[in-house]
Description:
Elements: H1 2-15, H2 18-27, H3 43-49, H4 53-62, H5 65-72, H6 82-89, H7 92-101, H8 116-122, H9 126-136, H10 154-160, H11 164-173, H12 188-193, H13 207-215, H14 243-253, H15 257-290, H16 301-373, H17 379-390, H18 394-401, H19 404-413, H20 428-434, H21 438-446, H22 448-451, H23 465-470, H24 483-500, H25 516-523, H26 525-557, H27 577-604, H28 616-643, H29 652-672, H30 674-685, H31 697-702
Transmembrane segments: 314-333, 542-561, 581-601, 621-646, 658-678
Membrane topology: Peripheral membrane protein
Domain PGG: 533-645
Amino acid sequence: MVDIDVESLFNYAMKGQWGEALEAYNENPGVLEAKITEAEDTVLHIAVYLGQTCFVTNLLDKIHEEVSLNILYMQNSKGNTPLHLAAELGNVELCHDIAKRDPNLICGRNLEGESPLFLAAVHGNRDAFFCLHRHQQGHAEDDSLARKSNGDTILHSTIATEFFGLALQIIELYPNLVNSANQDGLTPLHILAGKPNCFKSSTRMELLQRIVYTCSFVDEFEETDDGRYDKAETTEHCPANYATCATFISLFKSIDAKILVRIVESTILKFEYLSCFIYAEQEHAKKARKEKKQPVIPPNWAATIRFLIHMMKILLVICGVVALIMHAGASWIGKIQRKKVKHVLAKQVMNELIQRTSSVNKYDYTNKRKGSINSSNDKEKGGIENNRRRRMSPILIAAKMGVTEMVEKILETNPVAIQDVDSDNKNVVLLAIENRQPNVYSLLNKKSFIKDSAFRQVDNQGNSALHLAATYRNHKPWRVPGAAMQMQWEYKWYKLVKDSMPPNFYERYNKSGNTAKQLFISTHERLAKEGGKWLTKTSESCSVVAALVATVAFTTSTTVPGGPDQNTGFPLFQGEPAFNLFAIASLVALCSSVTALVLFLSILTSRFQEKDFAMDLPRKLLLGLTTLFTSIASVLVSFCAGHYFIVEDELKIAVYPIYAATCLPVSFFALVQLPLYFDLSLAMIRKVPQRCYKVSSHELLQH
């Protein structure tokens, strides 16, 4: 009997037949404690998961209190109780209803050591979190419910999941969590330092995106009284008198293309129905004329209605296009605004964490120095201090990940942090240079007290900052495609670091007996070969085209349209605008094609040394491509100008579209090559390379 009821209960739960589930309970109360899924869920787990608030509330009210508590304490295969699921899904009503029956349910933990309060914070369910937080007050005096078994706290988790608004409120409610470390020795500030995508300095934006980003106004998150827990979190505010404008603008944001299309389509259907009605009335009017009766609707109304139908169809197309543009534009702008909100909140969390941990960091650093002095007297204590020293501090992670804001803030509040080193004895400067972080490097290079000491640091292998700048690793750090341009910016980075180093560091040897220049040549050998191959293939292809264009241009320049005058020897069409255009275009085509051919041949004969990739080879490639495109365009112009003389006057207007169509392939090809043009041009203009932030944080931390 029990097995049949459990099977029926499972079917009721899967089909959402909750009334039948209540009847099944009345017939056999034991079925509520049965685990009816492979995940060992009870019917209450499934009801909570599906958001059946009324069913859960009615069920718990009808059954005995002791039975209800037994059901609420039951766990599935993951150790989650119904309250865990309600907190994870953010169901505030169920969290309140379950927690008020027995506040000790908040103390329950699953197999991962997570409490319902922890799950609510992890999933960013702000209202559920504060609901459980209010219920736990008076029942738990410490912050143990805000931690899990591996030492992660709700502050660790909200920062890791980028719920920064909730993280700010957790800092106010649980100030002790700011300095708490997990089993890996990571504090919340360590976690935040490993998320460069949450900061503006590590976010790459195009020109238009930067303009929208700058014009977006976002206020910092402000703490209010305890009533804030029942309000929706917001980060954007405006003066009270702007409310009407904001409401009006919000109407446009809510416009959907489908809504506009449906409105216009319904209007068209009404007009078409009216047209059909008028057509029927016209037929009736014809009969009325024969019978000499007065028609109900004038006969000229049909043409007016048809005209309105056509106009509405045109309006339908226009509204559809406009709505799609507005929807796409609003979505794009909203994405940039959300990005700025995240940056503002992340920076605010960073400021709070650094401000609250600055005194602790100073104390720890002082203890480190004392421990290192007295290490000979107390080996155990020295070992502990050594482990603390070798653990990478937040400023080192920030320098490695390129979080310029955090590096600047930490140095501002705790300048002694510049002496932090990792297990390889690398400080902030060495890590920033090794991981190709131009923004962090520029910041450190501007501070005189850092240049006097930190730039002279060497790691355990005797590598200076110049050695690390000369060492190339597998991932591509620079925001340029192709091995040749990667090589170009690698040399620029090496030269930039070299210019900022003391002169005696140029020929400094590491423990392997290598100078920075030797390291650059050896580690960039493969990249230089790949870049040389790409330049060789490109130059060979382009030189063939340039030679063909030069041949055609030479033949064209020696051919005079219409021939010379037999008496004077001057061209017959001399002085005509088309003839002048032909003469200039053919000359430009010949000169530019020959120039392009010479430039590509000079690339082919290059020795492809490392320093050649910095300026010489990219400049030749840029000029070669420019002159090649110019020669092709000039050949087409000279052809069109020469062809103009052999076309009859009646057909001259008709050939203009053909001339335009002839130039389309060249224009399209030039448009496709624009990114390469921009990259080559910017690389020659910029002294500091642009970092690519598509490399994952995990990959950087592994290195």
